[in-house]
Amino acid sequence: MLKENFFQQLKELIHRIEHEQGPSIDAAADAITKAIANGNCIHIYDTGHMLDSELINRAGGMSNFKPLRIKFEIENPVRKRPEDATKDRNLEGFIKYALRASNLQPGDVLIVGSVSGKSILPVDIALTAKEMGAYVIAMTSVAFSTLLKSEHSTGKRLFEVADLVLDNCAPPLDAMVKIPELDLSICPASGISAATIMWAIEAKVAENLLALGIKPTILKSINFPGSGVYNDNENLRYDETGH
Known about the structure:
Layout lengths: L1 H19 L1 H16 L4 E5 L4 H4 L10 E3 L24 H10 L7 E5 L6 H12 L3 E6 L1 H4 L12 H4 L2 E4 L7 E5 L4 E5 L1 H22 L15 H15 L2
Parallel strand pairs: 1-2, 1-3, 3-4, 4-5
Antiparallel strand pairs: 6-7
Helix pairs in contact: 2-8, 4-5
């Protein structure tokens, strides 16, 4: 029955997204459309749950969505690392440097994905991007995040600092299907819901751009003959026009 339960929960999740997040999806699409029409860029920063891979270089996807990835590594094996060495990694100052070293510009849109929304990085990225003049859209679980304490110095969670919030409608702890025998749940909602919301946004953005007389750069499957050349031309057009 767990499989059947999953499909039932999935249907209810999609229904909630369509009916509860419709206005936010439209608002996100409008902000993205405006940015694209003005020649600005769309950045996606994700903490690891699908956003910056699902939308990037996909058949039927748009060239406009670009991943923002920040890598920071230190290697110094002079002694054994203390067990609590990773607990005091407050990167708030580092994030200010990283974003200023990136291609983020005023008028751009930054989509920040974090299911819990409590960690330092997504909150600080959102705050810093807003200071730099970007429009910040959060993808998070409001129900889950509301129960958690922020790790950021401001005491704010992601949904409290973004310009617009997309609630992925994931339950607290994320998983949808309960296993009574184990007192646990399986099948997380956040990845599926994030993908659903973002593809809905893309559909609305494409519609908006066409209404403005702007051809969106939509990619074809690289596995179909001729698609490679077509995609190269579309990506070149995006580089030249920002559309």
